[in-house]
Write the structure tokens for this entry.
Amino acid sequence: MSEIIKNLLDYLQFPFVQYALIAGTLIALCSSLLGVTLVLKRYSLIGDGLSHVAFCAMACALPLHMTNDMPLTLLLTIACAVLLLRSGRNTRFTGDAAVAMISVASLALGYLIINLCASSANVSADVCSTLFGSTSILTLTPVKVWLCVALSVVVVTFFVLFYHKIFAVVFDEEFARATGVRVEMYNLLLAIVIAVVIVLAMNLVGSLLISALVVFPALSALRVYKSFLSVTICSVVVSVLGTLLGIIISILSGTPVGVTIVAVDLAVFILFCIIGACKGK
Amino acid sequence: MPLLECIDLAPGYGANAVCPPLSFSVEPGDYLCVLGENGSGKSTLMRTILGLQKPVAGEVRLGDGFLPNQIGYLPQQTAIQKDFPASVMEVVLSGCQGKHFFQPFYTKAQKEMAQKQLQRLDALGLSRKCYRELSGGQQQRVLLARALCATEKLLLLDEPVSGLDPQATQAMYDRIRDLNRQQGLAIIMISHDIPSALRDATRILRLGNHPFLGDVEEARKTFLTEAPKGGEEA
């Protein structure tokens, strides 16, 4: 045991491990805050869809020889998020069909573009790392960490300041609109924030596993807690602890970061299911 | 001075009106019951009055100093609410959100107001409960308390008793009548229940195949003569 702790303390000396832990905590915090809203709004899969859009955007940046693909990725993802959350009211496309469509289409297009303009010899490894989250969380530059910090501050501030509005809009959109809450604006802001969080979180777990980060903490919290505030707080705590534990395990045992975090989240979810079942009796 | 005036109002979608133009007004203390078969445009009319959709023609005019965000509304329950994790207080307080653009925290006065609304409906005991674990009647009472947080003058109710058992239905009707008679709240209610509408309401608006607009006495006479044919396809 002491061997492991000593090993861990050694690792913590390295700046790249510190960066990974900071960024991981912040991303977990943001994604779980939004996760509760998304799960309750019946948009659990939007994270998945948007991350594929982000994947497609990164692929598009390839032939354009952009050195920094972040702005393009953010822009495209935000556009799609706005489109998807708006179409909730459009009767022709129901929410899940639109998400499914955009999700698969952008995944296919992205892979196609990468294949057509492959610059490196090892295309499938590149793709694999974007999809499953590579070691990129362990190769963060200080600039990216600061970007992460700044965006997280924005997301958390938005959530704290508009917490009650978000509750009103999610719980009963019609009532909120009828009594004068500017529902459209909050939905738009939510869409933008979601897109930002997704683009951030792709660094951590990759685009295929992002839904886990958004959905699992919220679902775990929903098993046990019964008010919006307690569910939100619990899901943040679960998410942050789960992510930290996941990163540490993956560093110590050399497993891929993304999948380890998701495995921890899954274990926590099962644990909460059992607690919920016992409490319910 | 009417609270609300509908002038040649034709509710509908796009260019298609769902019912012929309506002109009526709601005075303080009125209890207007909107009847009509399914698809006759009751809910569309209510949504138009609330400003949730644009009318095809005509307009809704509010009385002096009466703002759209001072109308209370009890919508039909949605599927999302059935398993929503929320405490009763969280739900009731959310009725205050429309009043202020920016409100990160509730004030003490607002919390007291929410308690008072629950007390008004004999539901103070529920305030610490979880919303999704309440019975249908209790949930409706909580949503009514939320609507009362938003208004002091006019309450719009969209089939408030749907899904309730007979006892809870009667209790709900009694509460609504109390709010109207004792506390002077004007009410517009969509209903399918003609007998209770004729008993409690002061005015009746019927849409659909047999349009009618008038006082409740007039409605009793009119409805009586056509009753055998079942003018209202319930």
Summary: Chain A touches chain B at residues 40-42, 160-165, 167-168, 170-172, 174-182, 222, 225-231 (CB under 8 Å). The first helix of chain A runs from residue 2 to 12. The mean pLDDT of chain A is 84. The radius of gyration of chain A is 19 Å.
